[in-house]
Amino acid sequence: MTTTDTEGFVAALRGHSRRYHDRHPFHRRMNEGGLSRQQLQGWAANRFYYQKNLPHKDAAILANCPHREVRRRWIQRIIDHDGTAEGEGGIEAWLRLGEALGLTREEMEDERHVVPGVRFAVDAYVTFARTRPWTEAVASSLTELFAPDLMAERLAAFERHYPWIDRQGLAYFRARLTQAPRDCEHALRVVTEYCRSADEQAGALAALSFKCDVLWSVLDAIERSCADGR
Ligand SMILES: O=C(O)c1cc(C(=O)O)c2c(n1)C(=O)C(=O)c1cc(C(=O)O)[nH]c1-2
């Protein structure tokens, strides 16, 4: 594949930013300070279902990937989310975020607030990683190319509009500001190296499209449940 082919492929992947969930009305309202405490709680409890499933998704990629050098790097994602000891890792940090919003650990962990649309979308993401070619599963993680801007905006918005949230609770987002660029730089390298044919590249682009739909559907379902007052 020529450099130009790779550039075109990468540009097409990056072009998916137009479909990223930073443009979803629920995120817009969140960042403008328009959400109530209860709505933020609903968002955090539902998003916890996404967070807790990420290691399952990444373990599926490890299970399907035949390349040692890729697995060696990919395993870091599971470590980041699970931590290596009690009280560490991204899942723990998300629980602390939930607590800062006024939720208990128990009500996040027992999934009582998880609405059907969120469960469907997140489960579809994990199933995708289990059943599709491993390169497509890697490509589907590339929404993280677009995440750091949203994360920075969210941090500023939370501090400005929701001063009642303990700053310590926002540690999850601060960690992602460095983890996400590192992770997606690796994922992008893997995808450009292992998706060479037109079919493979089309598969990667479709996978990223699918993932944009997953994230959008999660917010649609959360927004709907807030409107219903659930
Ligand atoms: O809050 C967000 O908007 C957001 C988005 C995404 C994403 O774009 O998939 C991830 C995360 N957060 C995140 O925290 C995270 O750990 C993460 C892992 C992945 C992935 O697909 O492997 N996406 C995301």
TrEMBL record:
Gene3D superfamilies associated with the record: Heme oxygenase-like
Lineage: Bacteria, Bacillati, Actinomycetota, Actinomycetes, Kitasatosporales
Alphabetic keyword roster: Oxidoreductase, PQQ biosynthesis
Enzyme Commission number, as recorded: 1.3.3.11
Keyword set includes Lyase: no
GO molecular function: pyrroloquinoline-quinone synthase activity
InterPro entries hit by this protein: Haem_Oase-like_multi-hlx, PqqC, PqqC-like, Thiaminase-2/PQQC
Function: Ring cyclization and eight-electron oxidation of 3a-(2-amino-2-carboxyethyl)-4,5-dioxo-4,5,6,7,8,9-hexahydroquinoline-7,9-dicarboxylic-acid to PQQ.
Domain Thiaminase-2/PQQC: 12-220
Signal peptide positions (record): none
Name of this chain's protein: Pyrroloquinoline-quinone synthase
One Pfam family per UniProt: TENA_THI-4
Enzyme class: oxidoreductase
Pathway annotation: Cofactor biosynthesis; thiamine diphosphate biosynthesis; Cofactor biosynthesis; pyrroloquinoline quinone biosynthesis
The reaction(s) this protein catalyses: 6-(2-amino-2-carboxyethyl)-7,8-dioxo-1,2,3,4,7,8-hexahydroquinoline-2,4-dicarboxylate + 3 O2 = pyrroloquinoline quinone + 2 H2O2 + 2 H2O + H(+)
Family listed: Belongs to the PqqC family.
